[in-house]
Amino acid sequence: MTPLAALLAQRIAATGPISLADYMADCLMHPKYGYYATRDPFGVSGDFTTAPEISQMFGELIGLCLAQAWIDQGMPSPIILAEIGPGRGTLMADALRATKGVAGFHAALTVHFIETSATLRKRQAEAVPNATWHDSIETLPQGPFYLIANEFFDALPIRQFTRDAEGWREHMVGVEGDTLLMGLSAPAPIAMLEDRLADTKAGDIVEYCPALPSIVGEISARIEAHGGAALIIDYGDWRSLGNTLQALQDHAPANPLANPGQADLTAHVDFEAIAKAATSFTRVTTQGVFLERLGITARAQALAKGLTDAALEAHIQAHWRLTHPDAMGALFKVIGLFPKNGTPPAGLEI
Ligand SMILES: C[S@@+](CC[C@H](N)C(=O)[O-])C[C@H]1O[C@@H](n2cnc3c(N)ncnc32)[C@H](O)[C@@H]1O
């Protein structure tokens, strides 16, 4: 039993079952035993790999896309370049290197990271020493706002509901002896799921991310007030349906209740929920299409010229993983947020 499992079992025995969102929040962010609070989970020695860790091309193209949005918006200065959930800071380091030659861009920007994990803040400081860190997006300074969120929203806790004849039953984490197990609450009407009565039937599972509307609302309010753009990239689809909760430990699927605090817990992102919560304009496409439109193949060919043997093979494989529909190209989507009177960021034109 993990130390966090013991704590949770005690708490549930004393006060009753907790929602899946409360369980996930402790598993991921408990200050002492939470998954992100205690480790750097990326790379070969960690539990998973993200796009910026696969290839420098990812961060480079995202940086250039935001720099182009800044040019299209008349090169405002000063601006805020922010990343929420920056992991190891690799994406931002690649974005900054790629945009060095964009006249005036670096002089205009300050880098802000929104990160709750003290362990990962240390890694990020090694990659981008001049950043400023925040616990939440609200404390960022006001001004033209350019934001990146890659695989951030999938790490936010979700609630899960199963529809039945009498309403929605919420998935709750309970305890039997010292084993955590999943149960269902009594059925009840759920106001925020009213609009899902039309397209679901008894037995369907729907997920809801409680933190999403306020975070997206804050991002889009800043873009509407001051100009800017946001690129949110993640795996998921348009409108939540079905159980997408997954646990990953040592690059392998695990039981989400088995080792709380020691496995990564994620859920697919509902891109319709992002579009609905945004007060700015939005545009969605797949990661593969987005990266191809930004010129990843030309960039890959240029980088390939300096490579041979195993390094060249790895580079070709990285290009495939980022873009191919059988890898990340179709499962991952990109949603761009941009001002109502503005043009969509590059790569999201149609
Ligand atoms: C899956 S990682 C993605 C990392 C990075 N964007 C990448 O692509 O490699 C999720 C990141 O979000 C951070 N995070 C999770 N919940 C957060 C929250 N509520 N506020 C800020 N950061 C959070 C984690 O510590 C981690 O840096």
In short:
The protein has 350 residues and is an alpha/beta fold.
Topology:
Layout: H1 3-15, E1 18-19, H2 20-29, H3 35-38, H4 51-54, H5 56-72, E2 79-84, H6 90-98, H7 105-108, E3 109-114, H8 118-127, E4 132-134, E5 145-150, E6 159-164, E7 167-176, E8 179-184, E9 205-208, H9 212-226, E10 228-237, E11 246-249, E12 252-254, E13 264-266, E14 269-270, H10 271-277, E15 281-286, H11 287-293, H12 296-304, H13 309-323, E16 332-338
Parallel strand pairs: 2-3, 2-5, 3-4, 5-10, 10-14
Antiparallel strand pairs: 1-7, 6-7, 6-9, 7-8, 10-16, 11-12, 11-13, 15-16
Helix pairs in contact: 5-6, 9-10, 12-13
The structure holds S-adenosylmethionine (SAM).
What attributes does this structure have?
alpha/beta, Rossmann fold, five-stranded antiparallel beta sheet, 13 helices, 16 strands, 35% helix, globular, binds S-adenosylmethionine
Descriptive overview:
With 350 residues, this protein is α/β, with parallel strands linked by helices. It has a domain at 35-154 and 228-338: Rossmann fold (3-Layer(aba) Sandwich). Helix content is 35%, strand content 24%. The protein has 13 helices and 16 strands. The chain has helices spanning 3-15, 20-29, 35-38, 51-54, 56-72, 90-98, 105-108, 118-127, 212-226, 271-277, 287-293, 296-304, 309-323; strands at residues 18-19, 79-84, 109-114, 132-134, 145-150, 159-164, 167-176, 179-184, 205-208, 228-237, 246-249, 252-254, 264-266, 269-270, 281-286, 332-338. Strands 2, 3, 4, 5, 10, 14, 15 and 16 form an eight-stranded mixed β-sheet that branches. Strands 1, 6, 7, 8 and 9 form a five-stranded antiparallel β-sheet that branches. Strands 12-11-13 form a three-stranded antiparallel β-sheet. Strand 7 (167-176) and strand 8 form a beta hairpin. The longest helix is centred in the first third of the chain and has 17 residues, at 56-72. The protein is globular, with a radius of gyration of 21 Å. It starts with a helix and ends in a 12-residue tail after the last strand. S-adenosylmethionine is lined by residues 29, 36, 50, 52-53, 84-87, 91, 114-117, 120, 150-152, 155.
